[in-house]
Amino acid sequence: MKTRRPHAVTTGVVVRSLRPTDRDDVQDLHERMDQHDAYLRFFGARPKHLEDLAESLCLQDPRHCALGAFIGGILVGVANYVSPAHQLDNDSPLVEFALVVDHEYQSHGIGTMLLTRLVDAARAHGIERMTAEVLAQNTVMLEVIRDRGWAHALRRDGTTLHLDLDLDEDTQSDGPSARRRPVVM
User: Fold this and answer.
1) What's this model's pTM, rounded to 2 decimal places?
2) CA 97, CA 80: separation in Å to the nearest integer?
3) Which of 33, 54, 129, 150 meets the CB 3.0–4.6 Å disulfide criterion with 26?
4) Read out DSSP for 96-154?
5) Contact between 59 and 66 (Cβ < 8 Å)
């Protein structure tokens, strides 16, 4: 039998679209990240210009979407997607997504909640596919992927895992189907 870490109840978490007025909160969340979490999120050092990152995460337009998780008015997580520049002429709308949760709130279901809502928002905006890259050592993000039932959609490339989700309605489940690829971990 598979043993799972219990998740804390996520009552009291408010998830909403980020607004330009949330820029300082987004910047603060990224400044609170320790070196290890920054490496897992950015595949390297934290960006030097966090104010630019925060501003871009607060954009809401057809190519950008970002959701924030707030507890008691404090931003504790962000899930976002962006449409790649080369995507503009493609027939199959594709976005790349990312997720960050404050270290103190990781493994409590907030990342799963944010990602679930981000998929809903993507579908509502006509997005057909979502992709992400995850470092193989990012066990917390891999737990979120497993919680969503998407582990079979991971493809390993060295120390990076690629996730490719097809958001077309899956008649067998409530969530998106994932492009089936063998998982090699």
Assistant:
1) 0.81
2) 6
3) 54
4) EEEEEE-GGGTTSSHHHHHHHHHHHHHHHTT--EEEEEEETT-HHHHHHHHHTT-GGGE
5) yes
Give the long-range contacts of residues 103-106, CB within 8 A, separation 24 or more: 103/32, 103/33, 103/34, 103/37, 104/76, 105/69, 105/71, 105/76, 105/77, 106/140
CA distance 6 to 61: 36
164 to each of 30, 72, 97, how far by Cα in Å? Answer: 26, 34, 10
The CA angle 145-149-151, to the nearest 5 degrees, is: 55
Predicted confidence at residue 47, as pLDDT, reads 76
Give the span between the Cα atoms of 28 and 104, in whole angstroms: 14
Higher pLDDT, 116 or 5: 116
CA distance 142 to 30: 20
Across all residues in the chain, what is the average pLDDT? 82
